[in-house]
Structures are given as structure tokens and as C-alpha cells.
Write a structure and sequence with these properties.
Bound molecules: flavin-adenine dinucleotide
Shape: globular
Helix content: 10-25%
Radius of gyration: 21 Å
Distance between the termini: 27 Å
Number of strands: 20
Strand content: 15-25%
Length: about 425
């Protein structure tokens, strides 16, 4: 047997990532695989006591880190099949949102929203309830209409929102623990155009109004001053541009990157230049490094009504946050019914931290942030760094026990279990 992280290479597995994008997790798998057909994948799962899928590796924690077999589904034949009649598209789960979006746009379609980066796989993003921003938009998992997955015994299971009701709501944000997702069906909307404006120096009192002012809005802060450094307002082209004195801000006169010092060239076009939805809703361009590339991230979903109070609570630890922070982003996400969605039955205000790449300095600050936010029952992003006690986290999700039962029903022998999953969902 090979040492952890130095796994055996199966055919064509050389390009399975050995560590996550951020480099803070070196995968402990004993073997790495890149099957090229569903049948090969099914045989692999059926014959493996422990297996896990990796998407594009943009998570920052160990939910997906197995000591068994790690498999990328990127070798499966890619497909993007539009069902115009039903307004849906079925895609191979390993495809990146950016690739799917480009194809959809050429056919006159769009997805309702996108995350800050188009580099992530559809299945990996959905598994962790990845989200964009916008008061009327759910996270990306809420656009899922059906899933096809290989379950622990190697069977192919298809679940559909229309026919599988509540169980479906339990399976979409599955943390990669219910099966390996081969195909995902997503809701479509007609293609649309967006203009992106960056405004500087927002007073805190205007935050709520700013967040609700356009299709998708992100606000960036540095915790060095109470004012909010930048507003990235992504608005449909039909909406008039913000007036010169909008909410006491000034207009940026040149393109920006959310992280100070990083090249604006990596960011999607701003200054109100109209463009397709998929080239404006993400902050970062496909083909360029997103964010800073040298970082850790944490993120907390809070009740939207608690936004001002939550920021005031964080003021007490601003002196701890600022020295280890690259940028803080504030967003909104609409409530949904998905069991493990951080937005489950809660319109959300989301506080995101891009930290420096130094776990020893960052983890105590993460703990301090969680302690300050605890009164607001924060739900951490499933793909990022958090230190929440499992029992406390369970209490923040009304359907936690139901998900634990679903895990046992679909995966009785723990094929898809990992140490971090066991920590949060003890058997
Ligand atoms: C620079 C950067 C910016 C980000 N911006 C945002 C943002 O705007 N909004 C946001 O919400 N998040 C954001 N994230 C977090 C990111 O979206 C999530 O971590 C997401 O899960 C990454 O998708 P992935 O394909 O890389 O998944 P991975 O990290 O590869 O996997 C995530 C989980 O999904 C499982 N998984 C992957 N593929 C499959 C599959 N086919 N079947 C079953 N399980 C699978 C894995 O086992 C693992 O548990 C950002 C991350 C980075 C690095």
C-alpha cells in the first residue's frame, strides 16, 4: 500500500489533483482514479470500501478527503443537453460552471445566478450549496431539478424534484456523501445582459439598501474602518445606472479587483460596460486566477434581519480580523427548502472572509468570529474553514437528523464517509 497522498495511479489518473486549489489540504487517498465511462465508475464504486469524488478542488476543508479511493469524474464523456420544452439543461456533473454557461449563452439561455468564480464544477459546487448574491436568488443548489448519482453499491440512481419531493430536498446539498453525482439537471432562464458598476466608500447605514439595489450585489470591507470599501453592483441592462451621489458613494473610475494589489485584469468587466450574464455575475474571469490564489476562506450565513447587529458584534474583534484578512465580502441569498442549505428557511445575510494563507494565525480568529456570531446561529459554508462544534451546528439545521438518517439509509457501510463527515455526522 502507498503512503497517504502518494497514491497508486490507475490508468489516466495522472491529472487527478493531489491537493486542493488552495494547497491547505493534501489528499490522503491511497489511490487516484479517472474513469472514462459510467460503467467503469460503477465498477470502481462497487469494488471500493471507501471512495470519494473530487470536483475542481476549490473547497478549503476535508469533507472530501478520503483515505480510500479519490476519483475525478472529469474523464466521463461531457454533455450539455438542453431540454427547451421544460426549460432545463442536463450536464455532466464534473463540468465547470464557466464552460456550461458559455455554451448555454450561445443557445440563448442563462442560469439564474453564478458564484464569484466560474472555475468550479457543477457537482462540487452544488454539494456544498455554493451561492452568488442577490436578495431574490437562492444558492446554486436551488436551481437543481434532478440529479443522477452512483450510490454505494454501484447502482445508478436518478432523483427528480417533481417526483421525489422531500427526499430530493435532502439529497441536493449532499456534501458528496450520498453518492457520486454524474449528471445534474438545472433550471434555465432566458439569456440576459448585465452591467457591473463599482462604487466606493459605502456608509454602513446604507448597506441594506445597497444589497437590495440590483440583481446581484456584493459589498467589500477590510475591517480597518467602519465604512465599506466597495460595492459591486451587477444590474440587468434594463435598470438605469446608479446616480452620481448614490447612497453617499463615489464611482470607481477604473476597474478593480476585490483583493487590493491583485490585477484588475483577472476580474470581470466593470464601469457599466454591458455584457452577457456569465461574464458579469462572477467576479473573476475563467482562464485567470480567481481571488488571490494564496488564501484560506471562511463564510457564515446569518438571518438577513440580523445584518446590522452581526456587523456590530464583529466590530469587537475587528482588531483581530484585520491583520489576517485579505478581503471581507457581504452578500445576500434567498431562503430555500433544501435540508442542508445554509439558507434553509432563512433569507440570509452572508459574511465571507478571504484570509491570509496561514492556518496558525487564522484559526484563532475564525474561532473568535464564530464566538461573536454565535447569537445569530451562523451556518458556515460547507466548503470552507470553520470550527463550529458539531452539536451546535446540528441545532442550527432543523433537518440535520433527517440528513443523518438519509446518510445511513443510502450508505449503510460508510463508503462515502470521511473523517470530517464522521465528525459532524457521527454514526
Ligand atoms: C477563489 C474561490 C472563490 C469562491 N467563491 C465562492 C462563492 O462565490 N460562493 C460560494 O458559495 N463558494 C465559493 N467558493 C467555494 C466553492 O464554491 C466550493 O468550495 C465548491 O464546493 C467548489 O466546487 P469544487 O468543484 O471545487 O468542489 P470540490 O472542492 O472538489 O468538492 C467539494 C465537495 O463536493 C464533493 N464532490 C465533488 N464532486 C462531486 C461529485 N461529482 N459527486 C459527489 N460529490 C462531489 C467532494 O467530495 C467534496 O466533498 C469559492 C472558492 C474559491 C477557491
Amino acid at each position: 500500500m502507498s503512503a497517504p497522498g502518494q497514491g497508486v495511479l490507475s490508468a489516466a489518473a495522472a491529472d487527478v489533483p493531489r491537493r486542493n486549489w488552495a494547497g491547505n489540504v493534501r489528499y490522503a487517498a491511497r489511490a487516484f482514479h479517472r474513469p472514462t465511462s459510467i460503467d467503469e465508475l460503477r465498477r470502481l464504486v462497487a469494488g471500493s470500501p471507501r471512495i470519494r469524488a473530487v470536483g475542481t478542488g476549490h473547497s478549503f476543508n476535508r469533507f472530501g478527503d478520503t483515505t480510500g479511493d479519490l476519483v475525478t469524474l472529469a474523464g466521463l464523456p461531457p454533455a450539455i443537453d438542453v431540454d427547451a420544452e421544460r426549460g432545463r439543461v442536463t450536464v455532466t456533473g464534473a463540468l465547470r460552471y464557466g464552460d456550461v454557461a458559455h455554451r448555454l449563452h450561445t443557445q440563448g439561455y442563462a442560469l439564474a445566478n453564478l458564484a464569484s468564480l466560474p472555475h468550479i464544477s457543477v457537482a462540487g459546487a452544488v454539494a456544498t450549496a455554493t451561492h452568488g448574491s442577490g436578495q431574490t436568488h437562492g444558492n446554486l443548489a436551488t436551481s437543481v431539478a434532478a440529479l443522477e448519482l452512483v450510490t454505494a453499491d454501484g447502482d445508478l440512481l436518478r432523483v427528480d424534484r417533481d417526483t421525489d419531493g422531500d427526499t430530493f430536498a435532502g439529497m441536493v446539498v449532499g456534501l458528496g456523501a450520498l453518492g457520486l453525482v454524474t449528471r445534474v439537471t438545472l433550471d434555465l432562464v432566458p439569456a440576459f445582459e448585465v452591467r457591473q458598476y463599482v462604487r466606493l466608500d459605502l456608509p454602513r447605514e446604507a448597506l441594506d439598501e445597497a444589497l437590495g439595489s440590483a440583481y446581484s450585489v456584493s459589498v467589500f470591507a477590510d475591517w480597518r474602518t467602519p465604512r465599506l470599501r466597495e460595492v459591486w453592483r451587477k444590474q440587468r441592462v434594463e435598470q438605469p445606472p446608479p446616480p452620481a451621489d448614490w447612497l453617499g458613494t463615489t464611482a470607481a473610475d477604473q476597474p478593480r479587483h476585490p483583493v487590493l494589489g491583485m490585477p484588475a485584469e483577472n476580474a470581470t468587466p466593470q464601469l457599466g460596460v454591458p455584457g452577457p450574464w456569465h461574464e458579469r455575475l462572477p467576479h473573476f474571469k475563467l482562464g485567470f486566477t480567481p481571488s488571490s490564489g494564496d488564501e484560506l476562506q471562511s463564510e457564515y450565513h446569518l438571518p438577513r434581519a440580523a445584518a446590522a447587529e452581526a456587523l456590530a458584534a464583529l466590530d469587537d474583534v475587528a482588531h483581530l480580523i484585520a491583520p489576517v484578512l485579505q478581503v471581507c465580502e457581504l452578500r445576500t441569498v434567498a431562503a430555500d427548502e433544501l435540508w442542508l442549505s445554509p439558507n434553509h428557511r432563512r433569507d440570509s445575510f452572508v459574511v465571507h472572509f478571504t484570509w491570509i494563507d496561514d492556518p496558525a494565525s487564522v484559526l484563532p480568529v475564525v474561532a473568535a468570529v464564530e464566538e461573536r456570531l454565535a447569537p445569530f446561529a451562523p451556518r458556515p459554508h460547507w466548503g470552507k474553514v470553520f470550527v463550529t462544534d458539531p452539536a451546535e451546528l446540528a441545532a442550527r439545521y432543523p433537518r440535520y437528523a433527517d440528513f443523518a438518517a438519509l446518510l445511513t439509509r443510502l450508505d449503510p457501510t460508510g463508503t462515502f464517509r470521511t473523517d470530517q463527515l464522521d465528525h459532524h455526522f457521527p454514526r
